[in-house]
Sequence to fold (78 residues):
Amino acid sequence: MSTVGEKILQDALNLPTEERAEVAARLIESLEEARDPDIDAAWAAEVERRCKAIDAGEAVTSDWEDVRRRIEAELRKA
Fold:
């Protein structure tokens, strides 16, 4: 990564959580070449379905720290 890129990254890492998330989302969006409206609609429907399942108590959720520990343990085995 260039010096400019490193500086931008450090500045971004110092932002509050919500702003870091927004920067990350916009950077990821910038990598997408052509957006397919059908895919966007399908993702929106999937997000809605998952939110309803969570609200209805039908979804199994996990704490991020637990998931992260499991992933890190799996990576250490590999």
